[in-house]
Model the fold of this input.
Amino acid sequence: MVKDQLGRTLQLNTIPQRIISIVPSQTELLYELGLDETVVGITKFCIHPTAWFRQKKRVGGTKNINLETVRTLRPDIIFANKEENTQSDIEQLTGICPVWVSDIQTFEDAMSMIEAVGTIVGKQTLACSMTMKLKSLQYTSLQKYPHSISTLYLIWKNPYMAAGIDTFINDMMRMAGFSNVIQQQRYPILEMETLKQLQPSLVFLSSEPYPFKQKDIDALQQIFPHAQLILVDGELFSWYGSRLLKSFDYFSALHEQIH
Done:
């Protein structure tokens, strides 16, 4: 028996031989753990790795899972996430096979997830090696950027939405030397008047879930005349699997852009 990050107990008698992942970042993690033959289903948003995106059976989107497709794949386990997947989908999928649900708000949560998934799929040594390297990168980053720059991280437009303080993005910002100007929880909607009252030194426009472009920088520069606006790779701030191995080099490159 194992417990997921919601504290739910799952009955697993053997190492799963047929896995479905309905979380893009966890799908990529399974790939990096060498489970090419074992993973039988992913979502249409599981774009990494490219080979899996092209070849693996898709079971719908992260928030609208095709239950019949899942049943035909006969999974031994499904890897899901509290935020990315809906409660109703998770409840229905639990009727098909055990569903291991992650709940990630911090870097430490992500490390626990990687090690737990590695243990479940029989790749504990490889997973622990990955988290050891990530923890070393985390320590170096925290030492490198002791002084935080006030930053607004936008994830959506019409209406504008930002990453709040109890999100994984917020924790990644902290480690990368960026102090979140938003003190609300989750992903608050920001009215124009609220935006104008904020005085960040930086405004990050994420590539996902809304794909901000240069035209958005031009429009927002009028609202933030004294801030530097930068298009950022949302995956490297919000994907909590093996892609984190690329995040810290990206943060260093990002600091080189800042003036």
User: Anything to note?
Assistant: The two ends are 52 Å apart (CA to CA). The first strand starts at residue 2 and ends at 3. The chain has two domains: 2-137, 145-257.
